[in-house]
């Protein structure tokens, strides 16, 4: 039971990957509070999770918009009141936002996507940090994605906000390192969730032929298992990952289970971080 006795908030957890993380946390002994903006779906998910919980485990649900500061503060307050303590924050809430060329998309929708993806990560962190600092420990797990490490034409709000989430993760990790708070970002892989369905329903005219073909292939082949990303979140929420901080880890491609044995190397390295590539990094003799 890797998370026995630990209490966690998981945002964007009424469905998809967030729900999978909540299921994995419960299976490993944690008490959880799930959060989303949708009341009916959220309560249905809470009931499903509660049915899986072991005797004594708590499963709570709070409807909140984590891109708003008052809601983020209320979320943390209700978690502390209902769970009794708080050890882990998983910031999973996110959307793709408008799809299409930047000059054509609805500007209000573009801004809203950045608010949900970026502010919806920063604000829960701000709200939980005083508590984590007071107790001298805490785990923060922020969800990234492919848009953070490679261009994502025609889905620019998502790409820009997720890149910002990763750099915020690195920055916050350094701010709170001495407080024994670990802050990491997770790339769960190409998932077959509602975000994929949004791409397919938008069509190649908005997302581009290449990305649309890739998305069709992903749907046909099944995508990355939700369980892999959830397992990485369990690892980062557990004591096994103590000291690993400021990293962007891929659930699918990185050997994250072996990282505790490489802690001394990782602390001195910029592996698993966003960095600028210069000519010599690619064997070029100029620049």
**Name given to the CATH homologous superfamily of the largest domain:** NAD(P)-binding Rossmann-like Domain
In the predicted model, the low-confidence regions spanning at least 5 consecutive residues are none
- Strand line-up of the largest beta sheet: 3-2-1-4-5-6-7
Main β-sheet, in a few words? 7 strands, parallel
- The CATH topology assignment of the largest domain is Rossmann fold
Cα-atom radius of gyration: 19 Å
Query: Class of the largest domain, according to the CATH hierarchy?
Result: Alpha Beta
DSSP strand tally: 7
Helix content, binned percent: 40-55%
Q: Mind telling me which CATH architecture of the largest domain this is?
A: 3-Layer(aba) Sandwich
Compute the number of structural domains: 2
Question: What this model shows, in words?
Answer:
With 287 residues, the chain is α/β, with parallel strands linked by helices. It folds into two domains: 7-189 and 225-253, Rossmann fold; 191-223. It is built from ten helices and seven strands. It has helices at residues 16-27, 39-52, 69-83, 107-135, 156-175, 194-202, 204-207, 209-221, 226-237, 263-267; strands spanning 7-11, 31-36, 59-63, 88-91, 138-143, 181-187, 248-250. Strands 3-2-1-4-5-6-7 form a seven-stranded parallel sheet, with helices on both faces. The chain is globular, with a radius of gyration of 19 Å. The mean pLDDT is 93.
């Amino acid at each position: 039971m890797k998370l026995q006795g630990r209490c966690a908030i998981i945002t964007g957890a009424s469905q998809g990957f967030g729900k999978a993380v909540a299921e994995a946390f419960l299976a490993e002994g944690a008490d959880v509070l799930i959060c989303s903006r949708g009341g009916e779906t959220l309560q249905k998910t809470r009931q499903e999770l509660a049915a899986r919980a072991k005797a004594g485990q708590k499963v709570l649900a709070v409807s909140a918009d984590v891109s708003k500061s008052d809601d983020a503060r209320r979320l943390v307050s209700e978690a502390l009141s209902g769970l009794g303590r708080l050890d882990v924050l998983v910031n999973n809430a996110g959307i793709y936002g408008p799809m299409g060329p930047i000059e054509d998309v609805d500007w209000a929708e573009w801004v809203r996507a950045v608010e949900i993806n970026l502010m919806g990560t920063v604000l829960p962190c701000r709200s939980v940090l005083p508590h984590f600092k007071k107790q001298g420990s805490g785990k923060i797990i922020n969800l990234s994605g492919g848009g953070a490490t490679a261009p994502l034409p025609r889905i620019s709000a998502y790409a820009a906000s997720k890149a910002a989430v990763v750099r915020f993760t690195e920055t916050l990790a350094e701010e709170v390192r001495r407080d024994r708070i670990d802050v990491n970002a997770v790339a769960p892989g190409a998932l077959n969730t509602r975000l994929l369905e949004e791409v397919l329903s938008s069509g190649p005219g908005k997302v581009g032929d290449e990305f649309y073909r890739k998305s069709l292939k992903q749907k046909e082949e099944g995508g990355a298992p939700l369980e892999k990303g959830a397992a990485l979140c369990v690892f980062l929420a557990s004591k096994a990952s103590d000291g690993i901080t400021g990293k962007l880890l891929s659930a699918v491609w990185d050997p994250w289970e072996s990282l505790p044995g490489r802690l001394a190397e990782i602390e001195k390295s910029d592996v698993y971080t966003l960095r600028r590539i210069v000519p010599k990094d690619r064997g070029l003799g100029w620049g």
